[in-house]
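Feature request, filed as a ticket because there's no other form

It would be nice if the structure record came with a short human-readable summary line next to the tokens. Right now we just get the raw output. Example of a typical job, pasted below so the devs can see what we mean:
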Amino acid sequence: MGPDSKDNSEIRDRMRQIIIHVDMDAFYASVEVRDDPSLAGKPLIIGALPTERGVVATCSYEARKYGVHSAMNIKEAYRRCPHGIYMHPNFDKYRQVSEQIRRIWYDYAVKMETIALDEAYLDVTYSAGSFERAGEMAREIKARTLSEVGLTCSVGIAYSKTAAKTASEEKKPDGYFEIRTQQDFVDLMIDRKVRALYTVGEKTAEKLNRLGIYTIRDIQERKQEVLERFGKHGQLITDLAFGIDERQVVEYKPEDAKSLSREVTFQEDTGNYRLLDDVLVLLALSVENRTRRHGLHGNGVTLKLTYADMQSITRSKAITADNAEAIYTEASKLLEKVEKRPVRLIGTGIYNLSGDEGRQMTLDDYLKDPAADKQKQEIIVKRLGELEARYGLDFAGHLEDIYHGNTLHRTIEYMRKHFPNT
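Raw output as currently delivered:
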């Protein structure tokens, strides 16, 4: 067997993958309805409140009937659905539910690639061995997710990741669909609009439309033109139009992430840079907590600002950052050097992540461990003491609450409103 035959054999093996894509139905909204049945059947919008700045995180299918969708500006959502029920997201609860459903899904997968809290690809090529058995697994996943967690999910089974995701969308909500072969995918998709391909976003679709390319059939018939106009992206577009997707399921590992950060959007712009520096203390503690859970540290610190005119800037400094003190100290220095204009959003984080030899220390560790570095203790403890005095806060015994997204945002908004005039 020559080299070309070997390559072709490997491609054929990859194309014989069996992949399940699982996607929870309106996840955040469904969790809230599960926990409060009085919300069932009502247009529920999770995200910012209509009186606040922000966007829709997700919404129930009842709200979608009014044209509301995720990432929509909350003001527009309210214009379309003023009688809807608006709620802040409870990410801590959603993460707990996500852990439950992932434990179920992983029982069936050789490899699992999580995309979000509510979505994953499962490689069942060897654990299933056939599409028939994969179908049984998929139905078991749906049944267990409903019985053990109280939520519905939509499941797609296919020969590739793109086809599996397409399949899971086909019968939502609470759906099940199979796309077994490349030809099945083409037959299903060929007369759909170009936006039906997951690699084609709104801007790419507009460019294709300007060329007179509106459907996936058009892409196939004008393949060479797409390749010439879009280069590498054009190759991906045309491959998918013909049902070609050889990507493998890749298990996500926290250490594979390039960065971790936390940010907050103020309900009103602020030009108070002393307040912004105070906010960085809490954001740094929150970042430290997230990285500690995964045993990671960063080799650089970032500061992000979005000004009132929506201009965003990012500043960074290459430095080992393995605790809140290092993150805050460097972010604070970066803040001193930026142009002083009213700010809409502030964030900080770390990048170039790598694994720690041991667990990172939090402020609680510093307070409990007399051998901890005193300088680090003094910087963070001093700054928290200043925050307590300035805003009338009490962090003793409540630091863990600050790591929760809702509490963090409420605390920071309280600080903005109650910054002393003197």
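Something like this underneath would help us a lot:
Residues 223 and 238 are 6 Å apart (CA to CA).
Residues 254-417 form a domain with the Dna Ligase; domain 1 fold (CATH 3.30.1490.100).
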